[in-house]
Design goal:
This protein has about 240 residues and is of the alpha/beta class. It has one domain (about 1-235): 3-Layer(aba) Sandwich (Rossmann fold). About 30% of the residues lie in helices and about 15% in strands. It has helices at about 10-25, 40-50, 80-85, 110-125, 160-165, 185-190, 205-210; strands at about 1-5, 30-35, 60-65, 65-70, 100, 130, 155, 180, 195, 230-235. A seven-stranded parallel β-sheet has the order 1-10-9-6-2-3-5, with helices on one face. α2 links the parallel β2 and β3. α1 (about 10-25) crosses α2. The protein is globular and about 45 Å long.
C-alpha cells in the first residue's frame, strides 16, 4: 500500500485525478470502477476540466459503479445513477451506454446482484477502482461485519452510514435503509485500487485501513493485501498515521 500525502482537498482531488487520467491515457478503452459521495467530487471536476481541454478522452472508457440504493430508480434525483450523471458523466465525452450502476429499482435482490456480478465479470473487472472510505471503515456499502463479503449483495446500512449520507437528503428518514453493493472480493479483483480520503472525521478509519489488523470489522483493512493500492489523503485524514 502506497500513501500519497496531500495538503488539502483540492490537492487530494488533483493528485487522484492525475492517477485516473494516466490510466485512461495509457489504456483508452480501460474499465474504471467508480465511487459516489462527496469525497470524489473534486476528482470528477478535475477530470471533466481536463476532458474539456482535450487532455483526457473518455470516449472508449467503460465504468462500473460500486453501489446503488435499493428501491430507487435510475431517474430518482437521490439515486447514485443520477448522481453520477449530473456530477460526472454529463460533463465528459463518455458513451452513456458504457456506464453501469446496480439496478436499485429491481426489488429482487438476488437477481439484481447476480446480474451486476455477471456484467462486471464480463467486463474483466476494473483496471482501476476508485474508493472512498466511510467513518466506520466501510468501502462501497460493505459495512463492518464478521466476514469479508464476496460478490454483489444487498446490505442493511448502519446508523452511522445513514447519518453520514443524510446530508444529501432533506431528512434523515428519507435515506434508504438498504443498498446493493459490490462485495469486497469483487473490489479486490481490480488491477489497481485508488482510495481518496479527506478530513479529520476520516482519520481513524484511514489509520485502521493502513496500519490496523486486517479484519472485516474494518472492511477497508483488507486493502493492505492488495498488490497495487494507492491511498491519496490530505493532512487531516492522515493526522493519526
Amino acid at each position: 500500500m502506497r500513501i500519497i500525502h496531500t495538503t488539502d482537498y483540492k490537492d487530494m482531488s488533483r493528485k487522484a485525478a492525475n492517477i485516473i487520467s494516466a490510466q485512461v491515457i495509457l489504456k483508452p478503452d480501460c474499465v474504471l470502477g467508480l465511487a459516489t459521495g462527496t469525497t470524489p467530487l473534486g476528482t470528477y471536476d478535475q477530470l471533466a476540466e481536463w476532458n474539456h481541454k482535450g487532455d483526457c478522452d473518455f470516449s472508449q472508457v467503460s465504468t462500473y459503479n460500486l453501489d446503488e440504493y435499493r428501491g430507487l430508480s435510475h431517474d430518482d434525483p437521490q439515486s447514485y445513477h443520477y448522481f453520477m450523471l449530473k456530477n460526472f458523466f454529463e460533463k465528459i465525452n463518455i458513451n452513456l451506454e458504457n456506464t453501469h450502476v446496480p439496478n436499485g429499482a429491481n426489488p429482487d435482490a438476488a437477481a439484481a446482484c447476480a446480474e451486476y456480478d455477471r456484467m462486471v465479470d464480463e467486463a474483466g473487472y476494473p483496471d482501476l477502482q476508485l474508493l472512498g472510505i466511510g467513518r466506520n471503515g466501510h468501502i462501497g456499502f460493505n459495512e463492518p461485519d464478521d466476514v469479508f463479503s464476496k460478490g454483489t449483495h444487498c446490505v442493511d446500512l448502519t446508523q452511522s452510514t445513514i447519518e453520514a449520507n443524510s446530508r444529501l437528503f432533506e431528512r434523515e428518514e428519507d435515506v434508504p435503509r438498504q443498498a446493493y453493493t459490490m462485495g469486497v472480493q469483487t473490489i479486490m479483483r481490480a488491477r489497481m485500487i485508488l482510495v481518496v480520503a479527506n478530513g479529520t472525521n476520516k482519520a481513524q478509519a484511514v489509520r485502521d485501513m493502513c496500519f490496523g489488523p486486517v479484519t472485516p470489522a474494518c472492511p477497508a483493512s483488507i486493502l493492505q493485501l492488495h498488490t497495487n493500492c494507492v491511498v491519496v489523503a490530505d493532512s487531516d485524514a492522515l493526522s493519526l498515521c
